[in-house]
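Journal club side-thread
Mid-discussion, someone asked how the predicted structure for our own chain would compare to the paper's figures. Pasting it here so we can look after the session.
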Amino acid sequence: MQKRVKIDRSRLDRFKFEPLTDLKIFLKEKPEINDELRVDFNNTLIKQGIKIDENFKQQIRTEWRATIKSDIKRVAEEAPDSKNWYLKRVLSEKPIKLRVKINRETGEKKKTLRGSS
């Protein structure tokens, strides 16, 4: 299960993915396509010759994760003397492991750290 986070405009503006940048420029040049996208998103993309396949989606996921990792690393480097175990793991590029227990009756989740080596 993944935590759902609302993505606001400021987060998207930091995301620098070339095909999306090209798409934004294209939409500024032809504002009438914006209206078509609101009505029928998928067919409008197909009509414009924009193909969103699994490779494209994987590139976006990879770039998004890289952006998140760089943000975490930047925060960790700003506080190098911190006693925070998570930040030390990030700076040493080690994974953070969690153990999650889910109560079958209530659905309550309990998260604990796995090994703090």
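Post-session note: The two ends are 26 Å apart (CA to CA).
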